[in-house]
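Q: I'm building a small set of examples for a reading group on sequence design. Run inverse folding on the following structure and report the sequence directly after it, with nothing in between.
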């Protein structure tokens, strides 16, 4: 996914002038454009001795590679820039001080592994870019999300990355930032006027549903009595498209599944709530061939615990979304009913969101929605995609 973006580094904040001032350049008769462009190239070098490629300098400066090449060639002739090797350049002048961006981040909550991975990734990305990150915790609570939005406005941040799960409060949160003139990136849940960054929910669900249908076909001789879909109702219709895609994916492989009983349960995206929702459902359901599609991993794990408690986990199959550490641990259990989970790789969010954020701040064009890469992780492939789980999380893996 990251390859689809231009490299956009923080050292180019002053380069944002190249976007905001371009319209002024044509009207200012005293401005020498070549010197302005040269200043953008030199500002790309953030620290003494830093070696950059032509591509990196072009991305940081916001200029075309052909123009950057000519400017570097001229600066090299003037002994202001030195060429190192085949395609690396160093500045001979001391880099001048860049303005530090302040980016606000409203985390979904600290008790969720997916959210923690996103937060850690953003911390690493902002440190690498020299950006100041102002973090608050929405605590999975809509009122807290509104208060945090007001707090970040008071902090005078340049941009906000919002991660909160309640669709009903999204318009209010967006309004707070819009009135303050602060651009917004919304993770996973769309917010009016914000750049969306997250899953292509329908495609992810389709991937999960097709796998679940194939498993039923191969292991149960296509026999299926009930489809249970665990949703997160307050997140709104877009995340629910994961479940719509799942259902259609199952039916694409098993056409007769259209005649199966299909039940939607609201587990609120959490282990405890999903456990209770599935537990209540099992009191009335007598289905012996049952598949469960979960909107996220906590929902799936709660459902599995309820099935185990009822002694019915041997006649069910579960597929989820997110492929967080907890679900990867569960998949590695020999008798687990969690067959797989669609991964969105939250550990990569930070770097990629930072690139989008810097593009916004430097006034570069970006699409209104940016979808992450997703892959289906199964017990057969989990060690291929995450071979270092036991090394990075030894305490968790031993539990």
């Amino acid at each position: 996914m990251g390859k689809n973006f231009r490299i956009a580094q923080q050292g180019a904040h002053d380069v944002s002038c190249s976007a905001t001032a371009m319209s002024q350049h044509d009207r200012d008769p005293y401005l020498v454009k070549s010197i302005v462009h040269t200043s953008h190239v030199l500002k790309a070098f953030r620290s003494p001795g830093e070696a950059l490629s032509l591509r990196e300098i072009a991305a940081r400066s916001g200029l075309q590679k052909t123009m950057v090449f000519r400017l570097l060639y001229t600066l090299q002739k003037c002994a202001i820039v030195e060429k190192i090797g085949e395609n690396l350049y160093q500045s001979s002048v001391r880099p001048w001080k860049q303005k530090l961006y302040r980016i606000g981040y409203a985390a979904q909550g600290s008790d969720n592994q997916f959210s923690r991975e996103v937060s850690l990734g953003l911390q690493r990305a902002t440190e690498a870019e020299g950006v100041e990150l102002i973090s608050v915790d929405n605590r999975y609570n809509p009122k807290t999300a509104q208060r945090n939005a007001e707090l970040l406005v008071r902090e005078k941040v340049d941009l906000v990355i919002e991660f909160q799960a309640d669709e009903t409060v999204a318009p209010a949160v967006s309004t707070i930032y819009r009135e303050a003139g602060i651009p917004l990136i919304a993770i996973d849940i769309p917010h009016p006027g914000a750049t969306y960054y997250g899953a292509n929910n329908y495609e992810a669900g389709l991937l999960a549903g097709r796998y679940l249908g194939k498993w039923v076909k191969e292991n149960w001789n296509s026999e299926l009595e009930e489809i249970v879909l665990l949703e997160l109702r307050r997140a709104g219709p877009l995340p629910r498209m994961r479940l719509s895609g799942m259902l259609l994916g199952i039916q694409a492989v098993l056409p007769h599944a259209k005649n199966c009983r299909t039940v939607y349960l609201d587990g609120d995206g959490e282990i405890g709530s999903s456990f209770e929702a599935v537990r209540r459902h099992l009191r009335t359901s007598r289905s012996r061939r049952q598949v469960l599609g979960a909107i996220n991993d906590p929902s799936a794990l709660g459902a599995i615990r309820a099935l185990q408690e009822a002694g019915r986990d041997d006649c069910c199959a579960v597929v989820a979304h997110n492929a967080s550490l907890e679900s990867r641990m569960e998949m590695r259990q020999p008798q687990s009913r969690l067959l797989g989970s669609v991964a969105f790789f939250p550990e990569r969010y930070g770097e990629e969101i930072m690139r989008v954020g810097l593009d916004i701040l430097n006034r570069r064009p970006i699409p209104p929605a940016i979808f992450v890469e997703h892959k289906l992780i199964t017990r057969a492939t989990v060690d291929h995609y995450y071979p270092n789980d036991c090394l990075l999380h030894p305490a968790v893996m031993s539990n």
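The first helix runs from residue 16 to 20.
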